[in-house]
Write a structure and sequence with these properties.
The chain has twelve helices and two strands; from the N terminus they run H-H-H-E-E-H-H-H-H-H-H-H-H-H. By secondary structure, it is an all-alpha fold.
């Protein structure tokens, strides 16, 4: 019962924060100056749509019309500058596939690598292997992902000629995002996104497992005759995963958000470049839909991660005093 109340409370707070953030975004984008294109037919079409949406009305009226269209018709508006007369929802969903794919591939590579390196560093604590891994972690965590992108482009494209400079278009890759040629062109952004994720997960895994390996129940397991490897696999890893798994879950949620800068550098036709383009071109409806998308994903991730602690370890009860 307390768990249900806690979940309900978190959902209510989530929607309150969601409403506040989207309201601020709506006001900020609508107070910016609007310009019509030089083409008279296009300008008349856009002006008619703006009049229908109450763009000349007070901001509060505009906001009410905007949410009424979403709740009654699932109408998030129309793109007039990025893709003329294309529904905003359709434009977002077509851009979502490459963003999710690149980030999923990155996680599929970085999560096992981060866990293995973190476990190895914890087992080799205070030895030269641990020192080397810990030093590399500090370096990789401190460097922004876009620096890795430029380094990957320099070495894998300019120096060695192993990877393309940017991601292939659908036409160049055979008309699908799931071809081998398309995956080959995705390797560069995948690597650029993976370095920071590997370092973060390795550092977190090492810290949690190091603490677990020095606990009393590990000493008891060793006195029962278990080897260090057996005690680590059966007891230490199981308990260390309680805080590590929610971190991995949050990484999977972050997949939908993607990486704006990496997508921009490698020419990925994803959600990130769409968001930046909507700001630059004052494409109001696209900007609002992207803002709603990013805000909802971030807030939902927080709730799921918090609740995952209770499901991973039944001893943890959210909402208890």
């Amino acid at each position: 019962m307390r768990m249900a109340k806690y979940i309900l409370k978190r959902i209510i707070l989530m929607f309150f924060v969601f409403f506040v953030i989207t309201t601020i975004c709506f006001v900020l984008i609508r107070i910016l100056p609007r310009e019509l294109p030089a083409d008279k037919v296009m300008a008349a079409s856009i002006q008619a749509r703006w009049d229908a949406l109450g763009y000349n009305e007070p901001l509060l009226v505009q906001y009410g019309i905007y949410w009424k269209n979403i709740l009654t018709n699932w109408d998030f508006g129309t793109s007039w500058y990025i893709s003329y007369r294309t529904p905003a929802w359709d434009l977002l969903t077509t851009r979502l596939v490459p963003t999710v794919l690149i980030n999923l591939y990155s996680l599929a590579f970085s999560i096992p690598m981060g866990l293995l390196l973190g476990i190895y560093a914890a087992i080799k604590k205070n030895k030269w292997q641990d020192s080397v891994i810990s030093t590399l972690i500090i370096v990789f965590v401190s460097i922004p992902s876009y620096v890795y992108a430029f380094l990957v482009q320099y070495f894998f494209y300019f120096k060695w000629g192993l990877l393309p400079l940017q991601m292939f278009s659908l036409a160049d890759a055979g008309g699908s995002y799931f071809t081998g040629k398309m995956f080959w062109s995705m390797i560069a952004p995948i690597l650029s996104l993976s370095f920071s994720e590997i370092a973060s997960l390795c550092r977190f895994t090492r810290a949690e497992l190091t603490e677990t390996l020095t606990s009393d129940y590990m000493l008891l397991a060793r006195t029962k005759g278990l080897t260090k490897g057996q005690a680590t696999a059966r007891h230490a890893l199981k308990n260390a995963m309680v805080p590590i798994l929610p971190m991995i879950i949050s990484s999977f949620f972050a997949v939908l958000g993607g990486s704006m800068i990496i997508e921009q550098i490698f020419g990925v036709p994803g959600v990130g470049p769409l968001y930046l383009m909507s700001i630059r071109l004052f494409d109001y409806d696209i900007f609002m839909l992207d803002s709603i998308f990013y805000t909802f994903i971030g807030l939902a991730a927080g709730i799921v991660v918090d609740l995952s602690y209770g499901f991973i370890d039944p001893r943890i009860r959210m909402g208890e005093r």
